[in-house]
Amino acid sequence: MATTSTIRCPSAAARASVPPVSRASSSGCAWKDTSVNDTVAVLQPPVLETPLAAQRRPGRHAVRAVGAVALAGVLLGYVFPRVVGSTVTDVRAAFGAVSSREAAVLVLLWAAGLLTHSFVLTGALPGLTRRRALTLNLTGSAVANTMPFGGAAGMSLNYLMIRTWGVESSGFAAFTLVTNVWVVLLKLAMPVLALAALWSTGGPVSAATRWTAVASMGALLVVLVLLAVGLASRRAAERAAHVVAPVVVGIGRVVRRHPDPARVSASILDCRDLVADVLKRRWGQMSLGMLGYGLLQAVLLWACLHAVGADLAPAAVLAGFAVDRVMTLVVITPGAVGFAEAGTAAALIALGGSPAAVAAGVLLYRGFTFALEIPVGGTWLAGWLFWRRRATRAASGTAA
Questions:
Q1: pLDDT grade, residue 62 (50/70/90)?
Q2: Which residues of 366-386 are buried (b: 16+ CB within 10 A; e: fewer)?
Q3: Strand 35-36 to strand 39-40: parallel, antiparallel, or no bridges (unpaired)?
Q4: Beta bridge pairs of residue 39
Q5: Residue 75 DSSP one-character state
Q6: What are the residues facing 35 on neighbouring strands?
Q7: Is 369:297 a contact under the CB 8 Å cutoff?
Q8: With CB atoms counted within 10 Å of each terminal CB, which end of the chain scores lower, N or C?
Q9: What does each C-alpha distance from 99 to 96, 102, 231 come to in angstroms?
Q10: CA–CA separation, 76 vs 34, rounded Å?
Q11: What is the pLDDT of residues 295-339, one digit of tens each?
């Protein structure tokens, strides 16, 4: 049975009347009078439905999951080989060129990317430890990569974890919004950077590449303008909240929810205040972490291609990486399986890559950035559940 959690945020006057908490929480976040590690603390959550509040329809979800997996199978088994114009035998032979030393380097690059990305997470949720940031990243990805539209399921898992660490629901809302905005900004910026790299090196630039970069630039500017206006002006944020609130209410009615427009508007403003405070204090850390993460993933793609013999110019690899980042926005299949591989391989082949080697390199890269996260994250989740259960039993025994 699905549970619904309604989260409310009190007025500023009510928050000011709450007495300080003198001890640290179990999450490792030092909650003081009005701040957590120099970041304004939120004592009550805003009006936001948690990811677990969605109604579950097992039959419909099962049909959707089977359909998505079938589509992914068709894309990988039928469309992908025809896009790259190579045979399974040739691709398998290219995989055989990867040495054990090269495989070890690829693993280190992948792990370094995860570690770098943790700086984005610790910046978005002050007080979050490095280990817990890695836990959120790996376990959330493991769940999200196993089902279509899996981001909601991964978000639900992250929500449960964060709540067990003593963080308020409002902190989770701001954390989720900030991290997702930073991810989208990176994905939208990549086509523009790739186009600039191709032009500067004299590489071939197709019409599709130009239009993709133009569309990404337009979307990037829209996101940046909205973010800047919403955070710089409280009055502009209030106007935006009054515009967005009816839309949220309308969507709620479609899914048989009836949120109050005034409460929705207040929740948007409260969340805006949280995000503004986090970005004011931690935008530099999050930006550097996201740039470093993107750079390491691009290097991982280059290393995967190099390991299988597909030696392409750095600008071409950057263009392929940009396509991969954009294609991962397609959430019809788990982790955009089929779409990301076909799109990335097609772009790299168009830029002069050998079909068989490019196919092997892209599949190897996706093996790290998508497939490997499932068993690693699943194992990490099992360990977290084990230690959580053990800690709960120990606490119960002590209380008894």
A1: low
A2: bebbbebbbebbbebbeebee
A3: antiparallel
A4: 36
A5: I
A6: 40
A7: yes
A8: N
A9: 8, 5, 50
A10: 52
A11: 999 999 999 999 999 989 999 999 999 999 988 888 788 888 888
> Tokens 């928050």, residue?
15
The alpha-helical segments, DSSP class H, found in the chain are 12-16, 58-74, 80-84, 88-95, 100-124, 130-144, 151-164, 169-201, 207-232, 234-254, 261-307, 314-327, 339-350, 355-366, 373-399
- What values do phi and psi take at 167, rounded to 5? -90, 140
Torsion sign, CA atoms 215, 217, 219, 221: negative
Cα–Cα distance measured from residue 318 to residue 312, given in angstroms and rounded to the nearest whole number: 10
**With contact defined as beta carbons under 8 Å apart, do 190 and 164 qualify?**
no
- Cβ neighbour number for residue 140 with a 10 Å cutoff: 23
More confident: 348 or 42: 348
Q: What is the pLDDT of residues 257-280, one digit of tens each?
A: 677 777 778 777 877 888 888 888
Confidence of residue 5 (pLDDT cuts 50, 70, 90): very low
How many C-beta atoms surround the C-beta of residue 103 within 10 A? 12
**pLDDT band of 3, cuts 50, 70, 90:** very low
- Every domain of the chain and the residues it spans: 63-69+79-390
Amino acid at 150: G
Please provide the DSSP assignment of 196-226 as one string: HHHHHHT----HHHHHHHHHHHHHHHHHHHH
User: Six-digit token pair at 118?
Assistant: 């943790």
230, 240 contact by CB (below 8 A): yes
Q: How far apart are CA 178 and CA 220, in angstroms?
A: 15
Evaluate if residue 23 carries a pLDDT over 60: no
Q: 329: helix, coil or strand?
A: coil
Separation of alpha carbons 12 and 179, rounded Å: 26
User: From the CB of residue 202, how many other CB atoms can be counted at a distance below 10 Å?
Assistant: 9
Separation of alpha carbons 395 and 389, rounded Å = 10
Helix/strand/coil for 27: coil
Q: What is the pLDDT of residue 84?
A: 82
CA 21/CA 9 separation, integer angstroms: 18
Number of CB atoms found within 10 A of residue 100's CB: 7
Residue 128 has pLDDT above 60, yes or no: yes
Q: Is 0.90 topped by the overall pTM?
A: no
Number of other residues whose CB lies within 10 A of the CB of residue 235 = 7
